[in-house]
Amino acid sequence: MLTFKKLINKPKKLKQFSSLSLDQFILLAEKLLPLWKESEKHRLARPTRKRDVGAGRRYKLTTIEDKLLLILMHYRFYTTSDLLGLVFNIDASNVSRLVTKIRPLLEQAADPQLKGYLQVASKNRKKISTWREFVDQYPDLAEVITDATEQQVRRPKGKRKQKRQYSGKKKRHTIKTQLTVSPVGKILDVSKSYPGKVHDKKMIDTEKTVDKIPKESKHFLDKGYDGLPNDHPDHDIRIPYKRRRNKPELSRGEKQANTIRSKHRIIGENVIAKLKKYQILVQVYRSNLDNYNQTFRNISAITNFRLATANRLPAK
User: Are residues 202 and 173 in the same domain?
Assistant: First the structure.
């Protein structure tokens, strides 16, 4: 049976299994514990519960560290519940229940600012008189990069769902999510998840992402967002120059500008690559699509947590 105690003296194995160092893991468990206790208190005292508070079977995974290790390994390797159950010596159904209970808590524990960060900054921008003062308070918003990623899902049942979920770009059924990140790789915003048929431009318009970002921020995007600068002429939106029918060749200055802009946009690609170290965002997504966005947000929050604590905690 695998437990956190068995990995305390094997920090390399712990990082391989959970993607966190020993100190990062302990800190995240400490942040998760009060959220777990509050959630359990609410669950056990709910009016529809037939048993008394405190009645019922106890968890076989007694510590919050073991519960955290289970869901992180679920994200990291995306194995079946049966295999994880064998590893932790619990029933597969208990694995699913624990994942379901911890899933809504993990984002709040890892990065509570992820939800609503851009909205709060946008409101405060109106209160701060100068752009320099705003950047001093919100340095992550001096420049931002927005990009979208998509992941293959199982073929839906029904022609309508199949058509809606089908991505013409990937030639398969997918689900898409949009990210906005800072130049240091911090994830500032995660959109809702959309069927593969939805275009990137449609996503950013639906999410009103541009409106959340200050007008003075340099906003880098790829060619998939062509036309966005015309929709928001008051924002500093920078997308690559494209060859047009009436202008088949780019000028030297435009080519140089594209090279510079691609160096900014690569940061967004690097962040997406970090997210896809978790196999649950790489393999064909087998779970309920209703839980996909929260899973994506959890991994984004964990990625921010790793970035925020990388230089603050001693390396192990």
Answer: yes
- φ/ψ of residue 152, rounded to 5: -70, 140
How many domains are there within the chain?
2
Q: Helix, strand, coil proportions of the chain in percent (round to 5)?
A: 55, 15, 35
The pLDDT of residue 152 is 97
How do beta strands 218-220 and 236-238 pair?
parallel
Q: How far is residue 104 from each of residues 100, 146, 189, measured CA to CA in Å? A: 8, 25, 17
Sort residue 208 into left (φ over 0), alpha (ψ -120 to 50) or beta: left
- C-alpha 229/C-alpha 236 separation (Å) is 8
Place of tokens 């919100």: 138
CB 87 within 8 A of CB 2: yes
**Other residues' Cβ atoms within 10 Å of the Cβ of residue 43:** 11
Judgement on whether residues 57 and 192 belong to the same structural domain of the protein: no
Asked whether residue 46 is domain-assigned, the answer is yes
Residues of the chain whose pLDDT is less than 70?
Answer: 54, 312-316
182 assigned to some structural domain: yes
Per-residue pLDDT tens digits for 92-127 = 999 999 999 999 999 999 999 999 899 999 889 889
For 155, the token pair is 């073929």
Separation in Å, CA 91 to CA 38, 50, 83, 84: 25, 24, 10, 9
Residue 210, domain extent: 117-285
Q: How far apart are CA 107 and CA 125, in angstroms?
A: 25
Contact between residue 205 and residue 186 where contact means Cβ atoms under 8 Å apart: no
Q: Among candidates 201, 157, 156, 158, which has minimal Cα distance to 176?
A: 201
Dist. CA 129–CA 124, nearest whole Å:
10
pLDDT (tens digit per residue) in 225-271:
998 999 999 999 999 998 888 877 899 999 999 999 999 999 999 99
The answer to whether 150 touches 156, Cβ cutoff 8 Å, is no
Q: How many angstroms separate the Cα of 9 from the Cα of each of 6, 28, 62, 69, 316? A: 7, 18, 20, 15, 10
Whole-number pLDDT of residue 313: 57
